[in-house]
């Protein structure tokens, strides 16, 4: 019975959040998804031209929301443990994001907050959280 419980608890969906640098928006989305949707999916983030670091403003904004991004890293798609996803979500980078194998694609059209002040950055963070929370119903049908 314990083996069956472990199989039933394993997430079956794979969700990828993409942006160009993988330093702000996609990092925030991945963190929220890991926290809020871990029972529904495995979450990943990457970028087409990773900056190599998570933006300090993203780290600070997520700390204000109770999340720690200090262990996250900016990475490219080729470094991910899987190459196929159930859902790939671009943050608003459109054609700048790499081709990804996914069953379904979304573009959230979220502006890049890297040059914004604290209050406006937090608004973008909260917008991303809202969108992640709303993925619950979509994940149940893909």
Automatic annotation (TrEMBL):
Lineage: Bacteria, Pseudomonadati, Pseudomonadota, Gammaproteobacteria, Oceanospirillales
Any one of the GO BP annotations: response to arsenic-containing substance
Protein name (record): Heat-shock protein HtpX
Keywords noted in UniProt: Arsenical resistance
Keyword DNA repair tagged: no
Pfam families, per the entry: LMWPc
Species annotation: Litoribrevibacter albus
InterPro entries given in the database record: Ptyr_pPase (IPR023485), Ptyr_pPase_sf (IPR036196)
SUPFAM superfamilies, per database record: Phosphotyrosine protein phosphatases I
Ranges of residues in domain Phosphotyrosine protein phosphatase I: 13-138
Keyword Iron-sulfur: no
Domain of life: Bacteria
